Amino acid sequence: MSHNTFGHLFRVTTWGESHGPAIGAVVDGCPPLIPLDERDLQVWLDRRRPGQSRFTTQRREPDAVRILSGIFEGRTTGTPIGLVVDNVDARSHDYGDLADRYRPGHADYTYEAKYGVRDHRGGGRQSARETAMRVAAGAIARKVLGPSITIRGALVQIGPHAIDRARWDWAEIERNPFWSPDSGAATRWESYLDEVRKRGSSAGAVIEVTASGVPAGWGAPVYGKLDADLAQAMMSINAVKGVEIGAGFAAAALSGEENADEMRMAGGRVRFESNHAGGILGGISTGQDIVVRFAVKPTSSILTPRRTVTRSGAEAEVSTKGRHDPCVGIRAVPVGEAMMACVLADQFLRHRGQVG
Question: CA-based diameter of the chain, in Å?
Answer without folding.
Answer: 71
